[in-house]
């Protein structure tokens, strides 16, 4: 338990996010969508705590986004926009974390078919990203490549006369 204002929600959410049987990051197939929805509600209660440490907030938010993404992969297309919203919220809440921007931009391009939105987001934030770890530097390099691909995709959608 995290020691916050809602110990029951914290306990249930923590079990969901860390158990090998339910963790959204490690398990993407054969999910129990109804059980996930119950666990997601617990995690959303955790996020309501105003003084939640950033690391906990980021972990819970990322876990919810991965869960929603897993549901989309199982065929629940109605969660596509919700997943995009979760990734956008991660970027807005933690604007200096490269992996959140990378996931949001990738989702925007691959699932939402919005390369323009991905380009705007990457161009607006890439200069403000933390680059103090090798992982962050790798994510920034991936973002630069994704930016190139998104721009190419935008160009290929244009009428030939406009090229």
- What is the approximate shape? globular
Task: State the end-to-end distance.
Answer: 57 Å
The count of DSSP E runs of length 2 or more, i.e. the number of strands, is: 0
Strand content: under 5%
Which structural category fits the helices and strands?
mainly alpha
Overall number of domains: 2
Spans of at least 5 consecutive residues whose pLDDT stays below 50 are 159-163
Considering DSSP H and I runs of 4 or more, what fraction of the residues is helical? Answer: 55-70%
> Topology as H/E string?
HHHHHHH
Whole-number radius of gyration? 17 Å
This entry's quaternary arrangement is: single chain
Mean pLDDT: 91
Can you summarize the main beta sheet?
none
Q: How many H/I helices?
A: 7
Keywords: Coiled coil
Region (Disordered): 1-30
Coiled coil: 126-153
Biased composition (Polar residues): 11-21
